[in-house]
Write a structure and sequence with these properties.
Blueprint lengths: L2 H24 L7 E2 L10 E9 L6 E7 L1 E3 L2 E5 L10 H6 L4 E6 L2 E8 L3 H14 L2 H7 L7 E10 L14
Antiparallel strand pairs: 1-2, 2-3, 2-6, 4-5, 5-8, 6-7, 7-8
GO cellular component, one term: plasma membrane
Organism: Halioxenophilus aromaticivorans
Catalytic activity: oxidized coenzyme F420-(gamma-L-Glu)(n) + a quinol + H(+) = reduced coenzyme F420-(gamma-L-Glu)(n) + a quinone
Length: 171
């Protein structure tokens, strides 16, 4: 997918992503965790988490909602950017950090992250795309391998709030 195509997708989703993030944050996670995304090829009960991270250039704090799956006690997300030819900013920032902060529904955690490789990655990819089928379309639209990021909770932390984010990134 060209950067122009990705920008067009981003523009059409920008309002939805902003509204989703704000609903999740304002409700303390009681809303926004499970969302019907059948309109974009997803499931009726699609699960979403929030990740919080520092911008590697700006130093600002960002909070991004993402589809996730839980496999073997680990959370898995995909750095798809809708199938764009380059990685999303959240992923580029995350790979610079040793830990991840994430929220699932009404609980937030600090933990460690990793990227599965080879046969494990293939198994996780198959599971993830079974949960969120449209990621297969994203993969088909780009030459890059969409990264999978897995994380494990190590410490419970307070849920995220709108005021935690000092920067705003829509996708």
């Amino acid at each position: 997918m060209s950067d122009e195509s990705a920008a067009a997708i981003s523009a059409t989703r920008r309002d939805w992503v902003t509204e989703h993030r704000e609903m999740y944050l304002k409700s303390g996670g009681s809303q926004g965790h499970i969302v019907d995304i059948t309109a974009v090829g997803g499931r009726q009960f699609a699960t979403h988490c929030l990740i919080k991270y520092q911008g590697r250039k700006s130093g600002k704090t960002f909070i991004t909602p993402l589809c996730y799956a839980d496999i073997g006690g680990e959370v898995v997300i995909c750095a798809s950017k809708g199938g764009a030819d380059h990685h999303p900013a959240w992923y580029l920032n995350l790979i610079e950090l040793p830990q991840i902060e994430f929220q699932i529904a009404t609980q937030a955690f600090r933990g460690i992250w990793r990227e599965p490789e080879t046969k494990e990655r293939e198994r996780i990819w198959n599971f993830f795309t079974d949960c969120h089928p449209f990621y297969s379309d994203y993969q088909e639209s780009t030459d890059r391998t969409l990264p999978l990021v897995m994380f494990t909770a190590h410490e419970e932390i307070p849920v995220f709030t709108l005021s935690d984010a000092t920067g705003v990134r829509n996708i």
